[in-house]
Design goal:
mainly alpha; two-stranded antiparallel sheet; 11 helices
Length: 312
């Protein structure tokens, strides 16, 4: 049987004009920069007809995926953040909790509805991405990995929105906190990496642990928590011919993202997983953890620990 929460949410989202207005604005915001990228790149490579097509195709592909990823990270968490709080505001939350539906079915139904709407946005992006194939410079592997990256990002940040929707009481507050969490992730990871590199890796000579395989592996895992850095690094590796699931740590095109000291050849034959692979695994695990906490926290509004009375 279909999840009744999912069916209700999908009917509610698609019945009004709001969903189609968001889709139209989403496509317009995607189309205008794509056209500008094409005109700019076409003008810069007009004197190089042999590689012009590949350059245009690659630039369009990267531009479309980047713009789509930014928009999806804004729209989807906001949609998910109001999934539970909207029930609280309309005073149907306790009624929903008191039904025979288990908490996991309610949470998964709300999350699946947000992911279904996001999937519609991702499908709308495919024609823009496919235009790059007309010019060349993009492989089917890059195309599929971009779609996977978009969906995994939607799942992770949608789960963040669901968790805050369970915790908060108002949709506005849940949306603000969800977007703030996204900003902290996007800006906090690069900031911490730069600070760490300045404090510990800029010394001369570098510390011995900088050539440790454990350090390089942990650094790559931390880098791969960031969707733009993980997918961007994977794109650079694919463009360099690293098409497998692993790439050499000592010789690669993303060494500027993975600072290490190959002292005494310690990392000479060391292979690292592709950033997109690490990002996918981490995002799935984090999403499952966030959904688990959302299910555990889903309870009636009156089911709160009593406040202590102040003594007069």
């Amino acid at each position: 049987n279909a999840n009744p929460v999912l069916v209700k949410e999908l009917r509610g989202r698609m019945r009004g004009a709001r969903a189609f207005i968001i889709l139209t604005v989403f496509l317009l915001i995607l189309a205008v920069p794509t056209l500008l990228i094409y005109l700019s790149v076409a003008e810069s490579v007009r004197f190089d007809p042999f590689s012009a097509g590949q350059t245009i195709g690659k630039s369009l592909f990267i531009g479309v995926v980047t713009i789509a990823l930014i928009q999806i990270m804004i729209v989807v968490p906001g949609q998910a953040a109001s999934a539970i709080t909207s029930e609280k505001e309309s005073e149907t939350y306790d009624l929903l909790i008191s039904t025979l539906l288990p908490p996991w079915k309610i949470i998964l139904g709300k999350l699946a509805a947000a992911l279904a709407y996001a999937l519609m946005l991702i499908v709308a992006v495919i024609p823009f991405m496919a235009v790059s194939f007309l010019f060349g410079g993009v492989t089917i592997q890059e195309f599929l990995l971009a779609l996977l990256g978009l969906f995994v990002t939607v799942m992770l940040f949608g789960s963040i929105g669901i968790l805050w929707s369970v915790i908060m009481r108002r949709s506005l507050a849940a949306t603000i906190v969800t977007q703030a969490t996204s900003v902290v992730v996007l800006l906090g990871i690069p900031f911490l990496m730069v600070v760490f590199a300045i404090l510990f890796l800029s010394r001369s000579p570098e510390p011995l642990w900088a050539s440790s395989r454990v350090f390089v592996y942990l650094w790559t895992m931390f880098l791969s928590l960031h969707p733009f850095m993980a997918l961007g690094a994977s794109e650079l590796l694919l463009s360099d011919g690293q098409t497998g699931l692993f790439f050499p740590a000592a010789e690669n095109t993303i060494s500027f993202l993975i600072p290490f000291s190959n002292r005494n050849g310690a990392l000479q034959n060391f292979m690292l997983p592709q950033p997109w692979l690490i990002y996918t695994i981490q995002a799935v695990l984090l999403s499952a953890l966030l959904v688990f906490f959302s299910i555990r926290l889903l309870r009636p509004l009156d089911d709160r620990p009593p406040r202590r009375r102040r003594r007069k």
